[in-house]
Amino acid sequence: MGKNIIEKVWDQHVVYHEDGKPDLLYIDLHLIHEVTSPQAFEGLRLNNRKVRRPDLCFATMDHNVPTRNLPIINDPIAKTQINTLAKNCEEFGIQLADMGHPDQGIVHVIGPQLGLTQPGKTIVCGDSHTSTHGAFGAIAFGIGTSEVEHVLSTQTLWQSKPKTMQIHVEGELGFGVTAKDIILAIIAKFGIDVGTGHIVEFTGDAIHKLSMEERMTICNMSIEAGAKAGLISPDDITVDYIKGRRYAPQGEKFEEAKQYWLSLASDADATYDKTLVIQTSEIEPFVTWGTNPSMGSGISKSVPYASDFKDESDKQSLQKALTYMDLQEGTPLTDIEIQHVFIGSCTNSRLHDLRAAAAVIQGKHVHPNVRAIVVPGSYSVKKQAEEEGLDKIFIEAGFEWRESGCSMCLAMNEDVVPAGERCASTSNRNFEGRQGAGSRTHLVSPPMAAAAAIAGHFVDVREIMNVPV
Amino acid sequence: MEPINVVKSVITPLNRKNVDTDQIISKEFLKRIERTGFGQYVFYHWRFDQNGNPIEDFVLNQPQYKGSKILVAHENFGCGSSREHAPWAILDYGFNVVVAPSFADIFHNNCFKNGILPIELKVPEIEELLAKGEQSALEAEVNLEAQTLTADGKEYHFDIDPYYKEMLLNGWDEIALTFKYEDAIEKFEANRVAF
Q: For residue A469, what pLDDT is reported?
């Protein structure tokens, strides 16, 4: 019987196996950022331990960094955290893309961009959106700080082998429907914890026709379905993306790697512990109306009624969410007015995303009641976008064009949505207070965010799109 | 990490599903570079209003639950961000045990690294504990060795992976344990696929 990619990559990395124990799993790439690492490095110092493989680590600063007036950091505690990472990287010999460095950016944007992310690798980071790297056919997952310390010390982790799940997207994507809409629709349909204890492989033509950047959006949000990790079997699109990148194998080595990578794809007769199917005909541009990523609907719909839910606790969750969001049951999503637009985050801040948003806003202007910002995912994305003139399109339309970082996705820096105000955001979480205490987040795709910025409320972007995205 | 076996206290009933780690510890408190001192910020925006005054009807502000070491909540507890600051805050506030029908994977792992026992019980059992705990202060005793939670004369059994059970009972340092596999790691490294 054939194997799926999850089993192939997992089995390849087991250092030690004993029945009744988790597997000791080798980690090929350890990405590090400033927020979840200081206590891990401190642990090493307290126990007089070393970093086993600094050559397999790569660090950057993203969560806390300001997105304007660099390099001034007004928040002294944030500044300490950023300086601490720089000191730790120096002390332990870890490569760092510091603030202002041309490689700096959101950790999940720069890994793929530099060619560090490759099929078949095990990749970890003290960040739940590490699942992004699964787009390449890697097993990539977020870990806590104690596990960061464990990987630093041993380059391994004790991990119980997760179950495998296939989420099959059947059919062709409709006009104006993006990767973001696919993953939001999957989470809305199957639930915020459907993937718990599983690694998910996304399959189907609709998935394999997507570019690498779009695949990253899908895998990025696997964690919002509760999955340990999400991945996509490598194909020619994967291989073409990696070719020529700085840390990718070069020349003959690349050809050798390519054969290996493609061999990792799930076998035709592979099976999974669980398979779920969604039809593309069910997927339209999506907007979340609630306080977790599963609380969303297609733009043609309205905020649901409590009577739509059978379970008493679901009714209560809806009421709590609508109270927080200040929304009424039955309100059409297109009636919801917004005051902020955020285009950015590890979900949607890559060149493809910026192009898609720019195509919608070109020649138009941000609504007078809306403040809109674009935060490119990395220094390099910003440069490329500027070379294409995208910055001018955004600025002329009334957007603010910022430096790269996590920014308003979690509002650890100064980019905060004020209490009681609404944001159309291309990020990944609409939890209470995520973008600032009392803020209200609606998750959407970049074109949908751009369309909302112009209209001042949600609109079906397909009605105003000039060209297919 | 402190070993854990028997924990006795009143339970704190937090009747919510999908409690995410952003609620457990909000981002403005993640900038510290220490592992300690997060307890004062746990569930901050549910405990305090915008002026910093306690919200009286939130369960952690109710006097009958003071000193509780056992938090009981609904499904998918700890979802979202991987921030270990969440279990650090829970532990620092005084909870050693979290009971729920299910946990998000990363939070679940993080508990074991910090001497917090995550207990999974069935949904009806959780609903029973929540209902009783909300009605009046409910004393409970958790025994990890025996894998039981006892409350109001009723014993609830829970399963736990034997590996993690041993870790918690002994308060072991996992990294020190892994160093014993140094030979296996070296052997693996000599043969691993790398381009």
A: 46
